Amino acid sequence: MSFLKILSFSLLLADAYIGIRFLLNVLHILHTSKYSKAATVIYAFLFLGLALWGLYLLLVKNNLRLGLWISIAPWVILLILLFLNMILGDYK
Q1: pLDDT in tens for each of the 92 residues of the chain?
Q2: Smaller CB count within 10 Å for the chain: N or C?
Q3: Domain total in the chain
């Protein structure tokens, strides 16, 4: 197993874990979310969807490079959304 495959797989597992936690918050099984309901739904589908797609690319298609980019994508999208929320949010 190469280092790239181990790195991609570990990031995808972390994405899946976080996506499952957000999904459990959406389904009211887990009550630990500090975000709004809409944001929690978006984060759940973002993390779970990209984790499943990345695992498919990594295990079935054997495309390591694209699998690594897909495993990094939810973190980049999340940081962009949080940054936009900080800039465009109305804090009174």
Answers
A1: 789 889 999 999 999 999 999 999 999 898 887 878 888 898 899 999 999 999 999 889 988 889 889 989 989 988 998 898 888 877 76
A2: C
A3: 1
